[in-house]
Amino acid sequence: MAIDPDWPEPSGFADEDLLSLIRRQGEHYGYRRFMSFQDGSSMSFLELRDRVAGMRARLQDMGVRPGDRVALMLKNSLFYPVAWLGIVTGGRRPSNQLPPEGSRCRLHPRTQRQPSRRYG
Fold first, then answer.
1. CATH of the domain at 89
2. How many domains is the chain built from?
3. Domain membership flag for residue 116
4. Global confidence as pTM
C-alpha cells in the first residue's frame, strides 16, 4: 500500500488522546456506522463511545485500577474492540498471555466457568 503524497496531513490529532478521539468522533458522526462484522452486526460511533465508557465504568466498579493488567481472551466479535478500548482508555493494560501460576484473578460476573489458572 502506498501513501498518496497529495493526501493532506491531519492537523491536531497527534496531541489528542484515544479517549478524546472516541468521544469527539461519537459526537461528530453520531449514528453513522463505525464498524461492521462478518455476522452482520454493526456499531455506530455513538454506540462505540457509550460502550467503551460502560466498559471503563464496569472495570472501575470491579476494583480494577489504572495500571492493572486485564486478561482479554474473547471470541472474535464486536465486543473485542470495545473491551480493548475500555481497558486502555481507563489506563489499564490488556494482556492475552496466560498468567503466572498461583496469581489471583477476578471473574467478570457474566463468566459461567472457572479459569484453569488464577491471575491478577
1. 3.40.50.980
2. 1
3. no
4. 0.68
| Residue that has been written with the C-alpha cell 496531541 in this structure | 15
Whether residue 36 is contained in a domain is answered as: yes
pLDDT tens track, the chain, 120 positions: 445 556 555 555 556 788 898 999 999 999 999 888 888 888 999 999 999 999 999 999 989 899 888 888 777 777 888 889 999 999 988 887 666 666 666 555 544 444 444 334
The answer to whether position 85 is within a domain reads: yes
Domain that holds residue 48: 18-95
